[in-house]
Please model this.
Amino acid sequence: MIKEDYKTSIKSYKKEARQGSALAQFNLGICYSSGLGVKQDQQKAIYYWEIAANNELPQAAYNLGQCFEHGVGVDKDYAKMFEWYKKSADNRYIEAQFKLGLCYQTGKGTDIDYTNAIKYYKLAADGKHPMAITNLGVCFYYGFGVNINYNRAVSLYEKVISHNLRETQYYLGVCYDEGNGVTQNFDTASKLYEKASLLGYTPASFALGRLYENGYGVQKDIQKAIQYYKNSVKHENVEALYKLGTFYLEGIGVIQDLELSIRYLTRAAELNFAPSIYKLGYCYDKGIGVTLDIDLAMKYYHKAADLNDQSALYHLGEIYMEASDTDKAILYFKRSASLGHVKSWYKLGLCYQSGLGIKLDPKEAFECFLHVRNDYLDAKYQIAKCYYNGLGVTQNHELAFKYFQQAAKKNHVKSQYYTAKMYENGQATPCDYGLAIKWYILASNNQHAESQFKLGMFCKNGEIIEADYEKAFKYFLAASIQGHAEAQYHLGLCYEEGIGNIKSYTEAAKCYLQAARQGHVLAQCDIGLCYDYGKGIPQDYEKAVYWYEKAATNGNVAAQYNLAWAYKNGRGVEQNTELADKWFRLAEGYGYSSKDCVSINTHKLNSSTK
Model:
């Protein structure tokens, strides 16, 4: 169009337009749309473009598509937008071909149809449209309408990288970031992301923030990460909103600010971002930054679960399992597992293994554990246990040892214990006491009570390693603090006999009582003796009888004999010769005479000192 004399041009265009010139009709539309030589009038612009479009001028149809897409002179109408873009594209207008491909890819104004998206992107790409070439690369990278082909995607991106399009810079950065189609190179990825970010592309700012957060290709810098996330937030990037919400919630790189955290998470949740919806539910569940509201928490959990958020599905499974609604729990665990949630696979394995809420199926349990063995150490440990005990799989100590060792080397405590145990017993590996002790010590340092107890016994008895009573006492004490009944009993013996520490009948009685309450039979008999004779504890015949009866019922001969004497003499219990005879006979039935039992008790009570 000649710009020097718009009014003259307008007259010429009107004349030619009346004569049916589509180009003149189109140019008149341009003049009315821009106010060139005439008063700006978008309605007249649309009128002339529609005439030109119906006269098969693709540029006019394209402009009409733009009007309906952006609501210029008309109400936004994506269906009409699509119609005009298609008319223009089918008349080989390159820009419209690109736009139509985008409509098919995103489902704007039509149903998502990747095959047609590819078709129109290719048409526009043949016309060297750089964004069409970029989007075609995206389709090959993610498998939209075609088989995934990373090399083809990279080739397409590189073909138009010189156009300095922010999207191309970003998507090529993704290739280097993920190592697909090129050798992984975080440094190159960060440079490409930075170029795209400077051009205002929000996803690139977020990606750059992630690199700075983790120190990939750049020096780790949480403050820079936060800044890039904040840049992304300006354009309502939901992932950035979620990240910032999490940072302020947990005080990562910033001073903890629960109120600000909730604001960020709420904004992301309002944009239907499932992880933020779940996190908000968790905050209401625990009363973090908001007033505790279980009903609202459940509402958020269910909303996130409806969006297939793995964590929400798993958490709902845990909630229903705790509420003994095992059917619902299993349902949620299965849904979460199907989406790849590692802990859900593990939890399902435990349910199949125990028959909790689901039919007992050791084979299915094994398969669940096997599914996530490389992602979750507890699952690897369970696989080892399955092979060790022959649960759901043929017993195989060699494979059990292999899996125990793999997990043990990654600091899995129970696996360290079993590795030690197998070295000690020579199971699937030559007996090696040195390695057994090494692994028991590692597990003990990780507060594994059974390993601490085992080391205590080795040190006390001088088995495998040189006797060391002080170390034995320390190991028993460490295991006792964790509630290990056998260790509590042996700690009591140490206090009673002054092994590795000062003699203290009071402390001994405390230890025996702790173990006795956990069902330790020898401790039940010994605390009975303490009450009977007032050793380290106030004398109480009734309590003595109580504990004798516990131990006697569990088959302890000395307790049976002591209980018999209590009934015979009416000490702490009403005299009953019939019950006395019963307990005497039971004790003697195990091959013990009254003399043996007296000897046992005398050994325990060789001093009346309290």
Notes: The chain is about 70% helix and 0% strand.
